[in-house]
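Hi support team,

I submitted a single chain yesterday and got back a structure, but I'm not sure I'm reading the token output correctly. Could someone confirm the output below corresponds to the sequence I sent? I've pasted both exactly as they appear in my results page.

Thanks,
R.
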Amino acid sequence: MNSKTLVSNLKGLFYIALVLQVAFFVSFAFKWIDISPTPPLVSVVLERYALLITLLGIPGSLKLFSMIMNKNNHPEDNDITTDVYKKAFVTRFGILFLVATMNIVLYAISFNQNYMLLTLITFTAYIFSYPSNGYLYANEESIQQDEEEKKKLTSNKK
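Hi R., thanks for writing in. Yes, this is the structure output for that exact sequence:
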């Protein structure tokens, strides 16, 4: 798949997921959609685990993206690089999506402000997962620079 097509498809996925989550979040916040039971069923233990999952999930997903991209053994091959980028992006964005969805649902059930803040923090982390051509093109440029340096070294030896 072409890198421009891949990035545009990932941007579409990004915007659809973000708009859906923001729409549900706003609907729950203004009580346009009410799914909360009369006595709140969310315990303090669940709140602590949700905080832990959120605080580990955000940097973990960003670090996992970096680790997957660094395992690319063939950076000179554009097809392999785009496949690895797609896999890394979907993994990172999927983790962030699940964390945000968990916090939105817990906020809708309990209306606890902590879940609202955790959701907003996760939405802020979405900024760091926006798909970009920059990484793919930077990879291509670094390969070209390496090839030019090798040519210079071999021409200087002769």
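A quick pointer for reading it: Residues 3-138 form one domain. Let us know if anything else looks off.

Best,
Support desk
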